[in-house]
Amino acid sequence: MNRKQRRIFVAALFYLRRKKPRRHWVHPIRSEAARRECGEYHRLVMELRLDDDMFREHFRLSKELFDELLARVGPRIAKMNTRFRQAIGPAQRLAICLRYLSTGDSFRTISSNYRVGRCTVGRVVKEVSAAIWDALLPEYLPAPCMEDWRAIADGFSHRWNFPNCLGSVDGKHVVIEAPDNSGSLYYNYKGTYSIVLLAVVDADYLFRVVDVGGYGRTSDGGSLYNSAFGEGLRDGTLDLPEDAVIPGSEHRGPMPFVFVGDEAFPLRRNLMRPFPGPHVPGEQRVYNYRLSRARLVVECAFGILSSQWRMYRRMMAVSPTTAEACVRATCVLHNYLRVMTLRRRQRADNSSVLTHPCH
Q1: pLDDT tens-digit map of 302-352
Q2: What are the two backbone dihedrals, phi and then psi, of residue 159, each rounded to the nearest 5 degrees?
Q3: Predicted local distance difference test score (pLDDT) of residue 28
Q4: How far is Cα 203 from Cα 294, in angstroms, rounded to an integer?
Q5: pLDDT digits (tens, 9 = 90+) for 76-99
Q6: Which residue, among 319, 270, 77, has the nearest Cα to 169 in the 3D structure?
């Protein structure tokens, strides 16, 4: 092929690969009028507000919690209207994000239901998830101080019979679509691509520390080592309580406060793991049983998380950064729902005591 023929071939290839001109600035199906007339938010969601149970099944939040969450994140996710188009409102943006987190449906499906663009759904999910994390983090997932660690230890001692325990540690693989040009970084031992959610959970199934974004090929021990929590555990900067005497073992002297994990984690002064092997002596078997009861708290928390937010039941066809934002949002929403439910029960109990005829 001579130079002239090569130029003709390159020009023809460029002509064939050039993008087609857009037929619509905004497709009629996704116009503002069609969205208000047939969109899921303006039709179905408004009808669901008449039934609190169905609304909770749809968004995993009650109407009251949805409105309160909207008041918290609304100013962060509001967009400005322009002369060319009307911006999607904060309530609808929050509904789109919660619908993805609660179902894991594809962006194309949510786009068709809400009458917005597929790329718009992707941006909304990423931005609103980050806003939820920023708005709820200071109150519902703060960094524990020494008094918080002591309260967590009291909870494990009374509820799970494991004294001086500061939390249960484990990692969860969140399955994602293989990222471009990532090689085997996200390929895990299960044969899927994933990012790692490393979490510390207290006795009431609340997340106290989360680290999201570890490569799927990394083990739980490696994820702990690479995380900020693991670095603080090694450096002694987590503000842990001083050693205390365990009731019934005064002869052993003060014992350190510890986190509990499975065999994938290393044995350290503040990190306990079970004795290895299938056949262990009697005292070691009792210790393994007690540690297993305390360690299963984090497994139960992961189970509650994945049953509440069904995106964990599917492969997330999003970029790793979007997946990290979604995982962080569900973790803080998990704490938000449990804390608000507990507060509502306490208010109900107090009101029933005050209105009781015997008082």
Answers
A1: 999 999 999 999 999 999 999 999 999 999 999 999 999 888 878 877 765
A2: -95, -35
A3: 64
A4: 8
A5: 999 988 887 788 999 999 999 999
A6: 270
Q: Return the amino acid letter for 357.
A: P
Please tell me the distance from the alpha carbon of residue 317 to that of residue 323, in angstroms, as a whole number.
9
Evaluate the CA torsion angle 270, 273, 276, 281 in order and state its sign.
positive
104 near 115, Cβ under 8 Å? no
The span from the CA of 208 to the CA of 186, in Å, is 25
Angle CA(84)–CA(88)–CA(94) in degrees, nearest 5? 165
Residue 199: its H or E element: strand 194-201
> Using CA atoms, how far apart are residues 261 and 200, in angstroms rounded to an integer?
10
Q: How far apart are CA 244 and CA 233, in angstroms?
A: 18
DSSP bridge partners of 188: none
Query: 153: which 2 tokens?
Result: 């230890």
* Alpha carbons 16 and 118: distance in angstroms, whole number: 25
pLDDT of 20 strictly over 80 = no
Q: What percent of the chain is predicted at pLDDT more than 70?
A: 91
Type of residue numbered 249: S
Where are the domains positioned within the chain? Answer: 25-138, 142-317
